[in-house]
Write a structure and sequence with these properties.
Strand content: 5-15%
Number of helices: 22
Largest sheet: 5 strands, antiparallel
Number of strands: 9
Helix content: 55-70%
Shape: elongated
Strand order of the largest sheet: 8-7-6-3-9
Structural class: alpha+beta
Distance between the termini: 24 Å
């Protein structure tokens, strides 16, 4: 079941009652994905409360006799009007064979391909749909969504901008636009796009979840919590909102709360890869590394293209000094994201731990080249250049410059960057400055790190630089 970092497919505002037994629709377990085969008004007690459109893909939240409720949709619709994705694909195949100019069927089939990670096929069908009907805002929006998944962000922005121009009141186009900005790391523009989507449709909980995540990226913890809480008000079983709350609790250094939220998300959706990834990361932070690896492995099982889970499992392996396993996971990540500066920087640290300094240098240099202001990349490069046990790879002056840049970008509030700067200062013989900086790191560091930093302070007081073969990668 596909789960991607910015695609919260199981989020939804409406779940009117919960069944204690598992229900099925045409062989599908509640929680599975289905396609709507026509446009319908949805109802509660014969009163129209919402609407679904042909080709929409949702998760089943509940079943009651001949009716079903879908996440992200208010009200109920007949079971006979949804199909599992395999059936829906055959249904639209039949329509296209009967009428090759059926642009709607082409667009609907495209999104089934998208669900199955068959992006090239999805793009092909959307191109043909738009050739037949170039004024279809939904198709433009969906093509932007596919391009975003392919990391073709400039093209995605162009398509989504045109979708919004064609239909400024189409909320999902604004939502998809927000997802592209979020992928680009522009949290402010992402929030603005999500604002537009919510203004047009304030009952879709996934909009609030994603806006909450963008606010969290912008360090607006209060705003993020309000959005996650609103998502849960709309749908108390929204697993992705609990994932967001877990990430928020981590930002607040509340590990117990972070675990409770992530565990609740997994309880609600045992195959939700983002929930498993979130719980795994909290377990790692708590020192439960083997348990974390188990959760990350499950996340990868359910979402083989979830690059974040590969990164995080690799971090666990590196912390256990199982560098070959870590490098294998970073290789998988880099197959999915060929120019990932995070993946390259972390693989470089793993190569350093293994003692392959030439490859470590290559990866770290490429990471800094791709993202010259990525603080973790700068920090890892500085650590390598100042602490590598092989003299020919050390460059203290460059290490100081990189470490100072990382510290400045983080407002001198990250203890680990300050510790790296202290090691770089020691490498160039500035031991007084090294001691002063290490003491600052000591004041900011968590209790679990203080004894290690104190040992380095003693080393610098004896006017000796630090040498290391390993530095744990970071998320």
């Amino acid at each position: 079941m596909k789960r991607l970092p910015t695609n919260f497919k199981f989020a939804g505002p409406w779940c009117f009652f919960l069944l204690t037994m598992v229900s099925t629709v045409a062989g599908q377990v509640v929680g599975d994905r289905v396609a709507v085969t026509g446009s319908f008004a949805t109802k509660i007690h014969k009163e129209t409360v919402g609407q679904v459109f042909e080709g929409e893909i949702h998760s089943i939240s509940s079943v009651n006799g001949k009716w079903c409720a879908l996440e992200d949709v208010a009200g109920w619709l007949p079971l006979q009007n949804v199909m599992n994705l395999e059936q829906a694909s055959a249904h639209f195949d039949k329509r296209i064979k009967a009428n090759q100019r059926d642009f709607a069927a082409l667009a609907h089939r495209a999104m089934i391909f998208y669900e199955n990670d068959e992006f090239d096929k999805a793009f092909r069908d959307l191109n043909e749909s738009l050739r037949i009907n170039p004024k279809n805002a939904v198709a433009w929006s969906n093509r932007g969504r596919v391009l975003n998944a392919q990391q073709k962000y400039a093209l995605a922005l162009k398509d989504l901008g045109y979708a919004v121009k064609l239909n400024p009141k189409f909320p999902h186009a604004h939502y998809n636009l927000g997802r592209v900005f979020y992928s680009l790391g522009d949290c402010k523009k992402a929030i603005a796009a999500y604002d537009e989507a919510i203004t047009l449709d304030a009952k879709n909980s996934r909009y609030f979840v994603n806006r909450g995540s963008a606010k969290l990226s912008c360090q607006d913890l209060v705003g993020a919590r309000a959005d996650y809480d609103q998502a849960l008000t709309l749908n108390k079983r929204n697993a992705d909102a609990y994932v967001g709350l877990s990430n928020l609790s981590l930002a607040e250094s509340k590990l117990d709360a972070a675990f409770e939220h992530a565990d609740r998300a997994v309880e609600l959706e045992s195959q939700n890869s983002m929930a498993l990834n979130a719980r795994g990361w909290v377990l790692y932070k708590r020192g439960q590394v083997d348990e974390a690896i188990f959760d990350f492995s499950r996340a990868i099982r359910y979402a083989p293209k979830l690059s974040l889970a590969y990164n995080n499992r690799a971090v666990c392996f590196a912390s256990k000094k199982e560098y070959d396993k870590a490098i294998a996971d970073y290789n998988e990540l880099l197959k999915l994201q060929t120019e990932s500066p995070v993946g390259l920087a972390n693989r470089g640290v793993a190569f350093m731990g293994k003692g392959d300094f030439e490859r470590a240098k290559t990866d770290l240099e490429e990471a800094v080249k791709l993202a010259p202001e990525m603080t973790d990349g700068l920090n890892s490069m500085a650590w390598f250049l100042s602490t590598c046990p092989d003299e020919k790879f050390r460059d203290g002056q460059t290490a100081v410059l990189k470490a100072e840049q990382a510290c400045q970008l983080s407002d001198n509030k990250d203890w680990s960057y300050l510790l790296t700067l202290s090691a770089a200062k020691a490498e160039v013989g500035e031991f007084a400055a090294a001691i002063e900086t290490a003491v600052k790191a000591l004041q900011l560091a968590p209790e679990s790190e203080k004894s290690d930093i104190e040992e380095k302070v003693k080393l610098f007081k004896s006017e000796q630089p630090f040498r290391s073969q390993v530095s744990a990668p970071r998320q």
